[in-house]
């Protein structure tokens, strides 16, 4: 009988112990352990980039530079930014922020949580064309990477509500994770509908919960954090001891050939075998009507630019291509992709974001891509030719001039062509 009683109440006891730990845990908010930072920097774990206990002090240290992106950051090879920085003893180490499925809304939340650490600093941001779909970020992806801690951080950072805050509040209210929280929905609805600031009662509620979330973050942020450190060291050993672009480019071409020899698209063998081969016939001409020039993602991306402008962050934006051998097969228009690149560059350059590495015209360069949409061996090496000098040069004071009236508008989201 006693065993049955114990088994019945065991989950409750565990829950009470965890709850007690959260309430009683010291209020220290960060983890100051360089070894943990190193492991976390390549993990791409959602509890790391959605938390603040590890990534914030790591980036504040000056040893790590935030690399914002999505699934391309998870594709390791000898030419990945983390490998090149390790092998050639760069003055920086990338801190990878994102995962497959993260888009501008996720990156805004992450960058806002780093607002202090990014002030007068540098960052690298990879813009994926495939984010810019008709619907923009889907509910499933938003919910998967939603960070309550980062939401509370943003709300508590508001002194006077700006147009960017109202836009973000309206966007958040469209996702089920927010709709299911009546209290949070009420706060966001007030912001979206014109309230200029939080009430004292709302701020007290947010501060109390924010402190609990910080303790929870400190306790659990390392759970499930799988470092790619061993893989990075493995790939680094495959590179020559001295950096020479021509030598490395020849090596990248050789490795690319070896890893893409089971298909005609120059797509990584494993990716092709596991993800494409079985349904290949159905994919022919399946993307003819896809259009990345009309999307709410453009306005979501404007949120990110607002945050970088507020923090005076100097950012290198990278625009990758789409594998042309693959797009020719699926019918995805390279002409449309050029219009996408022109539109996103206009949004950047017209507001003073001029550090841009546009590789959208390299779609047909052999082994530039690892698969259909992700930078590969020669692609990452070309990107490094922009990244390394950008990060080697001293920070330059920014001169951003935001035009939110234009770039948050429905007209801009749906504008097809840029004159």
UniProtKB/TrEMBL annotation:
A single GO BP: lipoteichoic acid biosynthetic process
Keyword vocabulary terms for this entry: Cell membrane, Membrane
One Gene Ontology cellular component: plasma membrane
Domain of life: Bacteria
Keyword Signal on entry: no
Biochemical pathway: Cell wall biogenesis; lipoteichoic acid biosynthesis
Family the UniProt entry places it in: Belongs to the DltD family.
The protein, known as: Protein DltD
Organism name: Enterococcus cecorum
